[in-house]
């Protein structure tokens, strides 16, 4: 499931200067959406590239000059949200019969006047109101008055698959709970905080919630032999990797070898902690979505998966791919009776993870145990398939 962080930055935050500071902190942290009042949409567009949702309300607006007014009229948000200064936030009482609800009527209109609903959960009646709104709303934002799990649990169970459910939170800790509630969790959180640290931590919680943890195992080295020259690929990312991080590479999709990032110092070259000397152009590399790509396919802007020795993963953007002809080793491994292999450059700066620690491929010997990710599923265009495919 893809998680998201929305940042609340309407006039309840304060004047435009206060709102701007909060939005800027959100953009720098990497929030997915900013929720503002309709008259601020153009201003947010000028600050950076982010999805913008706007409360559709007739409330007061800041005084702006004619040029800003023209920009505001021209700027359209990515989604309109109803509920502020209405039934959703309790400004207007809920009708006894929800068929008479003004907020729900706006959501049900066919002129795209609103795609989202904002509901403060005061009691069970407002839970029911949120459930009804979710039948139509693409986005359903629910904010508890006293942050408790029970209303969120109820709504996840009842409407979790009907809408993008967004839970209102004020801290990263609350965000983590929202993402984990009933295991399924909320699809997104709406963060109401101006603290840059809290915003960054909430984005970090989002990223952690999306990442998988892999079960790495060991394969016994059967053969290490020179294999002549091949077109070797170095993957240079826009991120620095830690000493225990690398990428999963292999000639066979079912067995991907852990290859360390070049974080270690060498008598011959400086460390390059943004780089993994991955292997030959034909080899697979694992991607953050659980798929694979050929190393030859990678280009600047693609995402690859970084993994550490415990199997924790994160994503990194490829900044550059270097392909050069280099001498190679063919490394053959046994994994529970199955044979897998890969081609790795014959260079002492290229290191793999063994049960005895990091080891240069030039020092590998038969009998060494190497860490790898092993999966019996076949691959078709990088996707796992239930099909018999022979790789040899």
Mean pLDDT rating: 89
Strand order of the largest sheet: 1-2-3-4-5-6-7-8
Gyration radius, to the nearest Å? 26 Å
Order of helices and strands: EHEHEHEHEHEHEHEHEEEEEEEEEEEEEE
Strand content: 35-45%
Q: What are the low-pLDDT stretches, counting only 5+ consecutive residues below 50?
A: 59-67
Number of helices: 8
What is the helix fraction of residues, given as a range? 10-25%
Shape: elongated
Head-to-tail CA distance between termini: 34 Å
Structural class: alpha/beta
Instruction: Say how many strands there are.
Output: 22
The main pleated sheet reads as: 8 strands, parallel, barrel
Helix and strand layout, with pairings?
Layout: E1 4-8, H1 16-29, E2 33-37, H2 41-47, E3 51-55, H3 66-74, E4 79-82, H4 102-108, E5 116-121, H5 124-134, E6 139-144, H6 149-159, E7 164-169, H7 172-180, E8 188-191, H8 196-210, E9 217-237, E10 245-252, E11 255-260, E12 275-280, E13 284-286, E14 292-294, E15 303-308, E16 313-335, E17 338-345, E18 351-354, E19 357-360, E20 369-374, E21 378-380, E22 383-385
